[in-house]
Structure formats: C-alpha cells, structure tokens
Design goal:
The protein folds into two domains: 2-120 and 341-377, Rossmann fold, CATH 3.40.50; 130-337, Rossmann fold. Helix 4 (146-156) packs across helix 11 (291-306). The protein contains 16 helices and eleven strands. The strands form three sheets. The protein has a five-stranded parallel beta sheet with strand order 2-1-3-4-5. It has a four-stranded parallel beta sheet with strand order 8-7-9-11, with helices on both faces. The model is unreliable at 98-102, 105-120, 195-206 and 367-380 (pLDDT under 50). It is of the alpha/beta class and 380 residues long.
C-alpha cells in the first residue's frame, strides 16, 4: 500500500485528481509514515517549516500540486530551489496539476498523470461512427483567452457561413468578458455565433454547459483546437507545455484537428508521447516571429472548411492518411487511459527513477520581444 500525506488537503483534490477511485494508496495522518507528501501550491509554508522540525522528511517524495491551474515555470523553479536549500534531493521533488494531462516537467512519470477533469470530463462518453456525423467542423472556445480571441476576432472579420458548423465563444470574469469587449469584431459580431453555442453564448462554461458539448464532439468530422497554454512562446521551451481535455477529447472522439499551441516545441512533446497531429497536412506551423501571420494561416484553414460541403469534409477525413492517424491517436489515448497508476507510483519509489529536475534548475525564464509582450500584457 502506497502511503500519502496531504498538507492542508482540500476535499476537491481527491475528487478531481488521478487518485480518485483508486485503492492502491492509503491516506495517513502523520507525515512521518508517508511515502509521498502532497503540498498545496497555495500553502507551502507549513511543509517548509516542518522540514526544519523533522529532517527525516527530506527523504520523502515531495509532490507540489495545484488544484485548478498548471504550475508555472517560475513557481516550480522557486519551490525546487527552496527544497534543495533545505537538503532535499531534486530527484525526490515532483510537480502535479490536477486538471492537466501533460506537462513536460509537471507530471509524475512521462506525462502520465492523466487527470483531465475526471468527474466533469466528456472523455468517457464514447465516439460516434463517421457515417452518423454531420458537422463539418467544431471550434469550441471555453474561455476566450488571448490566442482564442485573436483567432475569433479574425474569423468574425471574414463574415463566413457557419452552416453545419459549430463555433462557440464563452465569457468569464477574468478572460472571456474582457476579451469580448476588447476585440471589435467579437464585440460587434458575437451574435453571429449565438445559434452555434449552448444556451447563451455570453456565458462561462460550467459543468452543465460542458455536458452539452458532448453531442458536438460526437457529431464533428473535424476540429479546431486552441489549447489553454497557447500564449505564444510562453512555454519556456516546453517546460510550461501541457495538454488539457480540449485536445484529448479529439483523441477520445476520433476527431482529426488543427492544433494551435504556444510553440512548435510543444508539438514535439505531444509526438514524443506517441500521438500524431494533423498540422503538417495543412502546412501549418507556429511562427513566433510572425504571430499575425500564424493567426491568419489558422483562420485560412477554418475558412477553407467553412466553404466545403459536409460530404466533402467527410470524404477527406475518411481517407487512409486521416484514418491511420485517428486510429493511432485513439489507441495511444486508450494506453494512457488504462495505465496502472499504482505502477507509476511504485516506479517513482524505486531506485530506477531518474532526476527529471536537472534541466529545470539550469533554465532561465525567456525574455520576450515586443510583439509577444504587447499581446499578452494587454489581457492578463
């Protein structure tokens, strides 16, 4: 039995983490009895103080977790350095965000934390055969963060026909509402999307509205996906790279898709996990030196699909090249979905586990040029 101790545990963590429903671990009430110590991102001080009081804790496996957001490069590096100064070996330090499937460093073992909204996810609803689908494409935008706002603003400037398509744009207090009002075309032409969204377009995605997206995924031939962490270049050469359910649902529902993410480096990370993307079929690359061009090229492909007939999109995705990649991604997703999480924890406890934090110690946060700073700083 793997023994785990939680400092300042919130009930939601166990509900949404990959530990949900597992029986291989035991939550102990004394940190001295534990194999793994889970420390909240927002409340690290009790643990750091405890190290001074009990030196044997330095030999435990330390997991810094965050309940709702990815752990940033700076936060991870700061925690790592603080632990090392207190005599903890970097090999014993791990980073884990409960709602993300992959971070290059923010994972337990090769990105296998598989914690993509276990309760609220649509991943286990099953896919629908292509013969029964009818939507040419779907372009789902939960919260309109900056990259999604840039794409939507350009998309709405072209006055396209969204017949047999589904394009959504949701607001929320921190990002969406601000960006809806900031970008002229989104603000003035938002009603163009209203018939293609759930209930109200101007609404933050929650559990109820999220469930309504299930039929969209099931009925889409193709998808356009902009990841949560797509703020150009801010992935720090992959260290802040992560995938959310937005991408993984495409794998689970057998949907070919065009992915807009922070950098081409992130594409490599995804491919290293065994997935095959479709960006190359459209000669689409992320160009950090020409962000406007990247946005326009992405929207060009959306426009291309909007002008196609549904039957032609179906013929395209049914070709051998598409189907081979779709099946590969589905099989790879099943592999990760069905992994024995207990074995991952036991592997970490073994002497074979290598230090994954060396590069994190060596890297420096990137200094960004004007175009990136201008886009990001205006909205965050």
């Amino acid at each position: 039995m793997v023994k785990i101790y939680f400092y300042n545990l919130t009930v939601e963590f166990l509900e949404y983490s990959h530990l949900n429903g597992q029986t291989f671990f035991q939550e102990v009430k004394d940190d001295l009895d534990a194999d793994f110590l889970f420390i909240s991102m927002t409340n690290q001080q009790p643990f750091l103080q405890r190290i001074f009081e009990e030196e044997t804790l330095k030999n435990k496996k330390i997991v810094l977790y965050n309940l709702t957001e990815p752990i940033s490069f700076g936060a991870a590096q700061s925690f790592l350095i603080s632990c090392i100064k207190r005599g903890i070996h970097s090999k014993n330090i791990f980073f884990h965000s409960t709602n993300h499937f992959l971070d290059q460093f923010n994972c337990l073992y090769k990105g296998l934390s598989i914690t993509d909204h276990t309760v609220k996810s649509q991943l286990y609803t099953g896919y629908q055969p292509f013969e029964e689908r009818f939507l040419k494409f779907s372009f789902l935008n939960n919260t309109i963060r900056t990259p999604r706002a840039l794409v939507l603003n350009e998309l709405l400037s072209r006055d396209l026909n969204y017949n047999q398509c589904y394009v959504s744009a949701n607001g929320d207090a921190h990002y969406g509402d601000r960006n809806i009002n900031l970008y002229e075309n989104i603000k003035n032409k938002l009603d163009n999307l209203q018939s293609h969204d759930h209930n109200e377009v101007y609404f933050h995605t929650n559990y109820k509205s999220d469930k309504n997206f299930q039929s969209i995924y099931k009925n889409s031939f193709f998808g356009f996906t902009i990841e949560t962490f797509a703020d150009f270049g801010l992935d720090i050469d992959g260290f802040n790279s992560h995938l959310t359910e937005k991408t993984i649902r495409n794998f689970a529902h057998k949907i070919p898709f065009l992915l807009l993410i922070s950098s081409e480096y992130q594409i490599k990370i995804i491919e290293d996990l065994g997935f095959v993307l479709f960006n190359d079929l459209f000669d689409f690359k992320i160009n950090l030196d020409n962000i406007d061009g990247t946005i326009n090229n992405y929207v060009d492909v959306i426009e291309q699909f909007s002008k196609m007939k549904s039957i032609d999109v179906k013929k395209l995705v049914m070709t051998s090249e598409y189907q081979t990649r779709i099946e590969k991604n589905y099989s790879q997703w099943l592999y990760y979905k069905n992994l024995n999480i207990e074995n991952i924890y036991r592997y970490i406890l073994s002497n074979e586990y290598e230090d994954k934090n060396i590069k994190l110690l060596e890297m420096k946060e990137r200094e960004f040029d004007y175009p990136v700073l201008n886009i990001i700083s205006s909205n965050i």
